[in-house]
Amino acid sequence: MNNVNITEKYTLCMLKEKKMLYENELTPHLIVSMIIEMMLDGNLEITDKNKVKLNEKLPISNYNKNLYEIMKDLKKEEIPLKNIITSICYTLPNKKLQSVIEALKEGMLEKELIVIENKKGLLGNKEKIQINESKFNNIIEEIRSEVLEKGKLTEDLILLTSLLNSTKFLKNIFTKYEKDELNNRLNEIKNTQISKKVKVAQSVISDMSALTASILLTSLN
Question: What is the pTM assigned to this prediction?
Answer without folding.
Answer: 0.87
